[in-house]
Amino acid sequence: MGFNTTNNELILVELTEPFERLFIQFVPHKIEPHRTANYASIAPVGRNNALMHYTGGADTLPLSLDFYSDDEKRQDVIKSVKWLQSLAMNNGYLSPAPKVKLIMGDLFEYEVWRVTSVKASMEAFDQGNGWLPMRASVQLQLQLVTDFNLEFEDVRR
User: Fold this and answer.
1) Model confidence, pTM
2) 108 Cβ neighbours under 8 A, 6+ residues apart
3) Nearest CA to 100 among 10, 24, 16?
4) Which of 16, 98, 117, 133 is 20 to 30 A removed from 89 (C-alpha atoms)?
């Protein structure tokens, strides 16, 4: 838990065992949800313009998180980075990648995500503590997962 400016109210929670969580130390500067729609172009003979057939889409959420060490042994930053990296992989052959919930007040109340990408930039390495980083910036890519086909009402609520 340690140092943070979010009063431990911003949390990334694993939705499968062992149900671990990561308290987000700092409020992200900005959040830019992204929706893509995929269409297949169908070109009927003699038609001047192709027909567009909706084939699906995806909702993604890039998220930038910063971590600063407040642990004397400097293990907290690398532990956070490695935990986030583990969310983007299967647990060997034992179980699939976990779903996660981003708790940020009412903003993502209904959304469940999978981590599809983790890019970490670590710096300020502490020689006295095995060269562990004292700071890291992590770029996460979350993708919305649903158990059913969303309708307009589900998105607009």
Assistant:
1) 0.89
2) 101, 102
3) 16
4) 133
